[in-house]
Write a structure and sequence with these properties.
alpha/beta, four-stranded antiparallel sheet, Rossmann fold
């Protein structure tokens, strides 16, 4: 197995005007590894994810995918790298005007990589992988429950058998039982594909289910990272407060 990380983030900085959002972030994701970045709202988790995806360009620092620097790629080179990625968006982000099977295979159809007949067949295969029946393929997103929409979004994320999957708050808006179903499906699908995953979340139930390794982002810096099983004995007061959801501690909460 290659020792080159699937994702290697080194000294990444990003500011918006005078607001420093990322302040020298270092993080790696190994082959087949599930890394979860935790932290409160506004700590820079989404900006970090967007920098890795190429939706934002860091002010300074390096981001490598399979050892290849990606911060200064041309458009065609970026498209090549994007072919390695799958993405589960926070709200599912399904297209209301398309059927489920068209949503799942949207990127492949747009790139003319498969025919419509092949797309329908692939969509059914991926629906089954996330525990949904074939007849769901012809439905529209509006006919689905929130949990079903999230499963369809996961099916879309794995449609092209990606090497790296990104999860943006994957359990947002779900009840605890459905959230756990999604977490288990994330673990299963990632394992079946042998994919590396990078997740951002503040849901500690998700962290405990899906993470091999956890990193906490606070004020633009990774202030702790370690194995998921070590998170309850991190020895870090910030991590301890966040993990246990305490109002009192070094992270000050604004109470109105």
């Amino acid at each position: 197995m290659s020792t080159i990380p699937k994702i290697e983030i080194s000294g990444v900085y990003k500011s918006f005007g005078s607001k420093k959002v990322l302040d020298g972030v270092d993080l790696t994701v190994g082959a087949g590894e599930s890394v979860v970045v935790i932290g409160g709202s506004g700590t820079g988790k989404s900006v970090l994810l967007k920098c890795v995806l190429g939706l934002m360009t860091p002010d300074k620092g390096s981001i490598k995918i399979d050892g290849r620097e990606v911060t200064k790629l041309s458009r065609s080179e970026r498209q090549e790298i994007m072919g390695k990625f799958g993405m589960l968006f926070q709200g599912g982000a399904l297209f209301d005007s398309l059927t489920v099977w068209e949503n799942i295979t949207f990127a492949l159809l747009q790139a003319h990589k498969i025919s419509k007949a092949q797309a329908r067949e692939l969509a059914v295969e991926k629906l089954q992988a996330v525990g949904l029946s074939a007849d769901v393929a012809k439905l529209s997103p509006s006919e689905l429950s929130g949990g079903m929409q999230k499963r369809v979004a996961l099916a879309r994320a794995i449609a092209a058998n990606p090497e790296i999957i990104f999860f943006d708050e994957p359990t947002t808006g779900l009840d605890p039982i459905m959230a756990d179903v999604i977490n288990l499906l994330i673990v299963k699908c990632s394992k079946d594909l042998g994919a590396s995953t990078l997740t951002i979340t503040h849901d500690m139930a998700s962290v405990r289910r899906i993470a091999h390794r956890v990193a906490m982002l606070f004020q633009g810096k990774i202030l702790w990272q370690g194995e998921a099983r070590e998170i309850d004995r991190s020895g870090n007061a910030y991590v301890d407060q966040f993990v246990h959801g305490r109002a009192e501690g070094p992270i000050t909460a604004v109470v109105k």
